[in-house]
Design goal:
By secondary structure, this protein is mainly alpha-helical. The chain folds into two domains: 1-37; 50-400, NCX, central ion-binding region (A middle domain of Talin 1), CATH 1.20.1420.30. It contains 14 helices and two strands, in the order H-H-H-H-H-H-E-H-H-H-H-H-H-H-E-H. The chain has a two-stranded antiparallel ribbon. InterPro entries: Alkaline_pH_Ca-Antiporter, NaCa_Exmemb, NCX_ion-bd_dom_sf.
C-alpha cells in the first residue's frame, strides 16, 4: 500500500483525481437519465409478462363491460406508447441519416407494426375477412385527411403559406393513386370471383406488382432523384450529421437507437395479439360496427407518425410532413397489402379488399382532393380544412353510413 501511495502520481489516473470523479459522475448521470427516459420499456415488458402469465383466464370476464373497457384502454395505451417510442427512436435515426433515408426508416418501422398488428388480429378472428381492407382504408383516411388536414391547417395558420417540392409530391401521388385503385377499388369489378374479392392468381399478381412498384419508387427516392424529396433541391447530409454529433443534447449513439427501436417493437407484436381478443368480442358479441376493428389498428399505426408530421409542419418544415404522410400511405399500400396477401395464403384466411358504397366514394374523393391540393407547391389553411371535413365525414359514416 505504501508503494501505491508513494507512486500514485506515476499512474495515468487514480480515483482521487477530481477530474476523473467528475467524468464518472457525468457519465453515470447520463446513464441514469437515459434509463428514466426509457421507463416505458419496462412498463410494456411488465404488461406482456402479466398477460403471458395469466393466459386465457384474463379474458374470461370480458362479458363485464367495465372489464372490457378497461382492458381495451390498457392494451391500446400500451401498444400506442410503444409505437410512439419506436417512432421517437426512428426520428433520432432520421436526424443522423438525413432525408430521404430518415423518413424511410420511420415509414418502414410503422409499416412493420401495421403488418404485425393486422396479422395478429386477422389470425385470431375467424369472422372478419374485411379487417385488412378496413385497416388499409382507415389508415388512408387518417393520414390523407386527418393528418394532412391538421398539418396544413396548423402550418397555414402559423405561417400563412408553406412550400414544398412539387416534384416529390407528384412522385408519391403518381404511385399511390394507381396502387390504391387497383387494391381497394378494382376487386369490386373483377368477375373471376364473386363479391369484392380476387382470385388467388390475381392476388399474387397484384402483390408482386405492388411490391415491385414500391421498390422502383425507393430507387427513385434514395438514388436517382433524391432532390425531389428535399425542399431546397440539394442534400447536405454531412453538414446535418456534423451538427447532430456536435449537439450536446444528443448523447446516444445510432446503434443504441436501433437497439431500442427493436426492443420497443417486440411488445407491440405480442400485445397486438392480445388486443385481438377484446376487439373481436366487441365486434362479434356486442355487435359494434365491423370497421371499428380496422380503425383501432389504424389509430395505433398512424398516431405516432401523425405526431411527427404535425410537429414538422408546425416548425415550418412541410417537406418532411409530406414525406411522412405520403410515404406512409405508399408503404401501407405497397408493402402491407403484399404481406397480408401472403399471410392470407399461408394461413388459409380469406380477405376481402374491395371498398363498398360510401367508403368507395370517400376514397375516390380523397385521392381527387390530394391531386388538387398538391398541385401548386404551396398550401394554406383552406386546404387543411377541406381534408379535415372529409375525415370528419369518414368518422360519422362509420355509424351512420
Amino acid at each position: 500500500m505504501a508503494y501505491y501511495a508513494d507512486h500514485c502520481d506515476t499512474f495515468p489516473f487514480h480515483w482521487a483525481d477530481p477530474h476523473v470523479n467528475s467524468t464518472l459522475t457525468m457519465a453515470s448521470g447520463r446513464f441514469l437519465s437515459r434509463l428514466k427516459s426509457e421507463w416505458f420499456l419496462a412498463a410494456s415488458a411488465l404488461t406482456c409478462a402479466l398477460f403471458w402469465l395469466s393466459g386465457e383466464a384474463i379474458f374470461s370476464t370480458l362479458s363485464n363491460r367495465w372489464v372490457l373497457v378497461g382492458m381495451l384502454a390498457w392494451l391500446l395505451a400500451a401498444v400506442l406508447c410503444s409505437a410512439i417510442s419506436v417512432v421517437r427512436h426512428a426520428d433520432a435515426l432520421a436526424e443522423w441519416l438525413g432525408e430521404p433515408y430518415g423518413t424511410l426508416i420511420l415509414t418502414l418501422s410503422v409499416t412493420s407494426i401495421e403488418v404485425m398488428s393486422i396479422a395478429a388480429v386477422m389470425l385470431h378472428g375467424e369472422n372478419n375477412p374485411t379487417l385488412a381492407r378496413d385497416t388499409l382504408f382507415a389508415v388512408t383516411m387518417i393520414i390523407l385527411n386527418g393528418m394532412i388536414g391538421l398539418s396544413l391547417l396548423l402550418g397555414g395558420w402559423r405561417y400563412r403559406e408553406q412550400q414544398y417540392n412539387l416534384q416529390g409530391a407528384n412522385a408519391y401521388l403518381g404511385v399511390i393513386i394507381p396502387l390504391g385503385v387497383i387494391v381497394l377499388v378494382l376487386p369490386n369489378f373483377t368477375i373471376t370471383t364473386p363479391g369484392p374479392t380476387l382470385s388467388p392468381a390475381q392476388e399474387i399478381f397484384f402483390a408482386v406488382m405492388s411490391a415491385s412498384l414500391y421498390g422502383a419508387f425507393l430507387f427513385l427516392q434514395t438514388r436517382r432523384h433524391r432532390s425531389y424529396f428535399t425542399h431546397s433541391g440539394t442534400i447536405d447530409h454531412s453538414r446535418k450529421l456534423q451538427r447532430h454529433r456536435a449537439s450536446p443534447g444528443r448523447t446516444m449513439s445510432p446503434y443504441a437507437h436501433v437497439a431500442l427501436l427493436l426492443a420497443y417493437m417486440a411488445p407491440v407484436v405480442y400485445l397486438a395479439n392480445r388486443l385481438a381478443r377484446p376487439v373481436d368480442y366487441l365486434i362479434e358479441t356486442m355487435h359494434a360496427p365491423v370497421p371499428l376493428g380496422g380503425l383501432a389498428i389504424a389509430i395505433l399505426v398512424a398516431t405516432p407518425e401523425a405526431i411527427s408530421a404535425v410537429r414538422a409542419a408546425s416548425a415550418n418544415n412541410l417537406q418532411r410532413s409530406i414525406n411522412i404522410f405520403l410515404g406512409s400511405v405508399l408503404s401501407t399500400i405497397g408493402l402491407t397489402v403484399p404481406a397480408i396477401i401472403v399471410i392470407s395464403h399461408l394461413t388459409q384466411h380469406p380477405i376481402e379488399l374491395g371498398l363498398q358504397r360510401t367508403d368507395l366514394m370517400l376514397f375516390i374523393l380523397t385521392l381527387t382532393m390530394c391531386v388538387v391540393n398538391f398541385s401548386s407547391g404551396r398550401t394554406n389553411v383552406l386546404q387543411g380544412g377541406v381534408h379535415l371535413t372529409l375525415f370528419a365525414s369518414y368518422l360519422f359514416l362509420i355509424y351512420q353510413g
